[in-house]
Specification:
The chain is an alpha+beta fold. The chain is built from eleven helices and nine strands. Helix 1 runs antiparallel to helix 2 and helix 6 runs antiparallel to helix 7.
Length: 275
């Protein structure tokens, strides 16, 4: 599981930021598929790795919305106005029984089969993640966690801790609480608090990443991808229009000089995070 988790994180992040599609859900789904295929392929090639897999709960915060991708039984919770809500649905046998009306929630929590998952990263060649889209509001607190937390800590306790503490302290307390109660599995917790929302153009100006026309070379349009496609602000990225340069080259030399390839829409973020 540890090897699968590390592989998944590495290839998912790189695949998402490098994908050419401006639509983030398209890029995220493609990155998930590619990461899943790599894990599955390695498990097939090395007998000692046979059957390895991992779960995934990923969240992208962009402008006024949050896009969540889900594979397995890790979870995403949203705390808003003092009320906590599980945004994702578990891909587990007991959850399917509850949704079908064949088992109560209490029975599911006590079932010896509650850790049997029906979907995971790397188990099969192709995986289908579930996507959820939520509005982002100032004051929201998101918690992404593995079942190592939810197996020991109630939703109401998660709400109480994340509402009273800063994200880093809340994450620490949640992990300590799960471990104090047995810690039967690895515990992963992310706590994200939405403190403010900033329009893309303003965010780009704050980072100082929008180039002015005087700072760009001929044929380079000083346009920030955030302003163009409404998704993420990608620092130091610029779109390239080589029409005039190609015309001049054709008139001068009789052939067209190749223009440089545009950067992926999210490539600037990779420069920030070093991924």
């Amino acid at each position: 599981g540890q090897i699968a988790s590390e592989m998944m994180l590495k290839h998912l992040v790189a695949g998402y930021y490098d994908h050419a599609a401006p639509d983030l859900e398209t890029a995220l789904q493609a990155a998930i598929g590619a990461a899943n295929n790599r894990i599955h392929s390695l498990a097939q090639m090395i007998p000692e790795r046979s059957g390895m897999g991992t779960t995934l709960t990923a969240a992208i915060f962009v402008e006024g919305r949050v896009v969540v991708a889900q594979v397995g039984d890790s979870r995403a919770y949203l705390l808003r106005d003092g009320q906590i809500r599980q945004v994702t649905q578990d891909h587990s046998w007991v959850e399917e029984q509850v949704r079908a009306g064949l088992m109560t929630r209490a029975e599911a929590e006590g079932s010896p089969f509650r850790n049997v998952i029906t979907r995971s990263m790397g188990a099969v060649p192709n995986v289908q993640p579930d996507f959820y889209v939520e509005e982002a509001l100032v004051g929201d607190v998101w918690t992404l966690c593995s079942d190592g937390l939810t197996g020991h800590v109630e939703d109401s306790e998660i709400a109480r801790i994340v509402s009273r503490h800063a994200p880093s302290e809340a994450a620490r307390q949640l992990i300590e609480l799960a471990n104090a109660r047995g810690g039967r599995d690895n515990v992963t917790v992310f706590v994200i608090a939405v403190r403010d929302l900033m329009p893309p153009a303003e965010f780009a100006r704050t980072l100082g990443t929008v180039e002015t026309a005087s700072e760009t070379s001929p044929g380079v349009t000083a346009a920030h991808p955030a302003a163009e496609n409404g998704y993420e602000a990608a620092p130091y990225a610029a779109s390239y229009d080589d029409t005039d340069a190609r015309r001049n080259a054709i008139a001068r030399d009789g052939y067209a000089s190749p223009g440089r390839a545009p950067e992926p829409p999210r490539s600037g973020w990779r420069k920030i995070f070093g991924r």
